Amino acid sequence: MTVNQIKETLVHLYAYCGFPRSIRGLQTFMAVLEERKAKGITDTIGAEASPIKDEGSKYDRGKAVLAELTKTSQDVPKTGYSAFAPEIDVFLKEHLFADIFDRDVLTYSERELVTVSVIASIGEAEPMLQSHLNICLNVGLTPKQLQEFVEIIKTTIGGKEASAAQKVLNEVLKAKK
Question: What does each C-alpha distance from 54 to 57, 79, 102, 176 come to in angstroms?
């Protein structure tokens, strides 16, 4: 990964694990880069995010991105948490999906793997994990790749988190049959 892809990953994470952890990750990454530079290692910076040129409503852009990711219409009456607290629906669509997901430094599949990683690591967010595993399939990741990813979660995050992710993945794959 390039420096900018790693920075984008750490920025993306704040939407799922909060600013303090995201900022701490950025600070740690800065220190790693300084250490590498001191050792004479030159890292590839990579492309910056392209400016978003669509001047339409951020809410509509976010709705379109979310519709593409979920393969479902976003023009339905709000239910659940979106009906209970409509402002969260606005924040999700305008900020998460228009401001963050619309940036081109990471692909949708890369963003989804980052998202699944953090949701699995924080735990007790199975409905969100289920949604994002479905999105992973929608953006072209295969069941085999997701199974391999659960193994990565097991070795890097832990067995408990991997077991919970495996259970949700099994449910998602069963529902797709």
Answer: 8, 28, 10, 34
The residue to which tokens 């692909």 are assigned: 107
pLDDT tens string 59-77: 999 999 999 999 999 999 9
The Cα–Cα gap between 24 and 21 comes to 5
Q: How far is CA 84 from CA 74, 81, 132, 141, in A?
A: 17, 5, 22, 33
CB atoms within 10 A of CB 117: 22
The enclosing H or E element of 116 equals: helix 108-122
pTM over 0.85: yes
Contact 19, 26 (CB under 8 A): no
How many residues are recorded in the chain?
A: 177
DSSP secondary structure of 43-100? ----PPPPPP---S-HHHHHHHHHHHHHTS-S-S---HHHHHSHHHHHHIIIIIIIII
Q: Tens digit of pLDDT for each residue in 123-149?
A: 899 999 999 999 999 999 999 999 999
